[in-house]
C-alpha cells in the first residue's frame, strides 16, 4: 500500500515527508510503548502511535521504520519534524484512535507485524 493511499484512507495530514508518498508500506505496528517497538523487528512498515515526542521518531529510525502515524489528534513537534527530515521519514497526523486506524489499514490489506 502506498503512503498516499494511507493518507486518503485515514483522512490524515502529512506534516513531514510529502515527497515520499509513493513509498510502499507492507505492514503496520501500533504501540505507545517504544520499548515494545524496539523488541519488534519490522521494516518497510508504519508505526501507529499516540506518542508525540522525539523519542518516537528516534525509535522508528532505529528500527528502520520510515513512516509514523500520530493518532488521537496528536501534533508533531518541531523537533520531531526536524528529526524526521534528517532521516527521510514521513510523519502524518490523524484524528482517529489507534484502534480505528489499525482497523482501517487492516481491512484494506495492510499486514500486521504479528
Describe the structure concisely for a colleague.
The chain contains five helices and six strands, in the order H-E-E-H-E-H-E-H-E-H-E.
Averaged pLDDT, please? Answer: 96
Q: What fraction of the residues are assigned to beta strands by DSSP?
A: 15-25%
Total helical elements = 5
What's the main sheet like? 6 strands, mixed
Characterize the overall form.
globular
Radius of gyration of CA atoms, rounded to a whole number: 12 Å
H/E order of the elements?
HEEHEHEHEHE
Strand order of the largest sheet: 1-5-4-3-2-6
Gap between N and C termini: 18 Å
Structural class of the secondary elements?
Answer: alpha/beta
- Low-pLDDT stretches are none
Helix content: 25-40%
List how many beta strands DSSP finds. Answer: 6
What do you see in this structure?
α3 (54-62) packs parallel to α4. The protein is globular. The protein is 36% helix and 20% strand. The chain contains 5 helices and 6 strands; from the N terminus they run αββαβαβαβαβ. β3 (45-49), α3 (54-62) and β4 (67-70) form a beta-alpha-beta unit. The protein has helices at 3-10, 34-38, 54-62, 78-86, 98-107, and strands at 13-16, 27-30, 45-49, 67-70, 90-93, 111-112. It is of the alpha/beta class and 114 residues long. Strands 1-5-4-3-2-6 form a 6-stranded mixed beta sheet, sandwiched between helices. The model has no long low-confidence stretch (mean pLDDT 96).
Amino acid at each position: 500500500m502506498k503512503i498516499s493511499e494511507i493518507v486518503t484512507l485515514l483522512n490524515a495530514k502529512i506534516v513531514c515527508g510529502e515527497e515520499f508518498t509513493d513509498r510502499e508500506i507492507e505492514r503496520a505496528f501500533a504501540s505507545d510503548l517504544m520499548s515494545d517497538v524496539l523488541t519488534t523487528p519490522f521494516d518497510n512498515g508504519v508505526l501507529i502511535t499516540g506518542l508525540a515526542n522525539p523519542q518516537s521518531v528516534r525509535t522508528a529510525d532505529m528500527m528502520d521504520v520510515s513512516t509514523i502515524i500520530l493518532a488521537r489528534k496528536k501534533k508533531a513537534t518541531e523537533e520531531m519534524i526536524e528529526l524526521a527530515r534528517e532521516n527521510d521519514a514521513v510523519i502524518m497526523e490523524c484524528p482517529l484512535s489507534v484502534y480505528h486506524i489499525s482497523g482501517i489499514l487492516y481491512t484494506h490489506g495492510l499486514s500486521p507485524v504479528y
